[in-house]
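P.,

For your records, the input lines for the assembly:
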Amino acid sequence: MIDLRQLREDPDRFRRGARLKGSDCDIDRLLELDTQKRSYQQDAERLRAEQKSLAKSSGPRMGQLSGQIKSASDADRPALEAELADLRAAPARLKDQIQELEARINEVEPELSAILLTVPQPPDDDVPEGSSADDNVEISRWAPDGWDWDAGFKGSKGFDPQTHLELCERLGLVDFPRGVKMAGSRSYVLTGLGMRLHQAILRYAFDFMVQHNGFTPMSVPVIVREEAMTATGFFPGGRDQAYLVSETARGAGQDLFLTGTGEVGLMGLHQDEILDTARLPLRYVTVSPCFRREAGAAGKDTAGLYRIHQFDKVEQVVICAPDEAESRAWHKKMIGYVEDLLRSLELPYRLLQCCTGDLGAKNADMVDIESWMPGRGELDAGGRPTGDFGETHSASRLYDYQCRRLNMRCREGGETGKGATAFCHSLNNTVAASPRILIPLLEMYQNADGTVTIPEPLRPHMGGIDRIG
RNA sequence: GGAGAGGUGGCAGAGCGGUUGAAUGCGCCGGAUUCGAAAUCCGGUUGGGCCUUCGGGUCCACGGGGGUUCGAAUCCCCCCCUCUCCGCCA
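Structure tokens returned:
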């Protein structure tokens, strides 16, 4: 959520930000509602102040009178009742006026907050302008020794690659038909060594963040209330992407939603808390199931393990002090961790600076990491894919946008400290999302004889075996 | 799933219709005392919105939301959460 005060002071900045992100939120309407609301509020407050001072001066007397009236003789009663009625008249009038103003505020409020939630964080100035992922800009790329980008897979390795689909089927790593039988399209069952490899990469990535990079391991809920989805910035925008557990339909008080990323649980941890600045930054890592409806993606990436409804992901988040330089530095570090991981697995990748149009509402900046997937991309003359990059990671920098929604603040001394509070900054990045990461893993590690070598670092997590097939 | 109890400031804990944003205790921060400290005494000690001539003014919040009332922490309704007992269960 953006800061309404900042919006008042510099609406053009937010208008421009919304335009760059392709958002059609109505900022003028928001400003208009805000002005109205504040005006009503000021009037109401003035009247309420008056009401309170009246209540203080005549309240006790009113209480006394109504007590006396009960026990008064018939002769005294009319005089007492008259005095009471007199005392009541002024505050009663005020009450009506206040209620009138409150009714107006209540009319304005829902629309105001609805729009406010949709105003995107303006992209940073150094984020390139663009309307879609096509305008993203490559920053750098890396590949292990022996890989030639121009020659591609065949040129580098000397044989035609099979796609991960072919490998999975031939080596018995995934059972798609049975997944679909149980759960419909975009569902799958990892089988045998496929499941083992999946577990191995998750475990490797998780340990990597905990043991080498000092992140605190956490388990988090993946079935949460709507409030958690809104507070972390996924709702209202991403409502269509989340599965709904409709508990109210069976009489319960609340519906729940399945989270699409561990970020929801990790960021929700400290909602409504005042963190001690001395304890920042907080660095958390989790591994969790992720659920995505993939609404609007019908027909896209329908085959294989690329776009699926359920997967597991190791996710990292950092909550740091509200300092732009620090927040930018963490962004670089968090990307660096993933580069280290991919390099240790010898997977070719590139960093992609996302353009304004591809950022999403929450982000001031986003860098995607794409791994090379030989089984994707255009087909050659022989009908074989020529390979392409596929997104495997996404590193976001959010400033205080998310923490403002979460009401997550910091100050010296934390909850019991003194002085002004400030909203923290937050960042998040994938560490490894599987089974999608299995695509480059299987495709890049396949051998001419149809077997797949297990990457060295994963072998300890697979009982020491070094190849599949 | 059934039956009860309860949610008040950093914590503990009063208040159960009227100058109560909230007694008291603990904790914490100043000051006094002291060579210094403990003890003692005095003072202070929530978060947020709006307005501001930047001195300050004002409103909201006692789990959340609605209602009754001239006035609600106190009464009513809905929801959330916690605890105890029983049942079920990974």
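Two observations worth noting. Residues 38, 41-42, 44-46, 48-49, 51-64, 87-95, 225, 253-254, 274, 413-416, 418, 421 of chain A lie near RNA strand B (CB under 10 Å from a C1'). Chain A has two domains: 26-118, 133-468.

Regards
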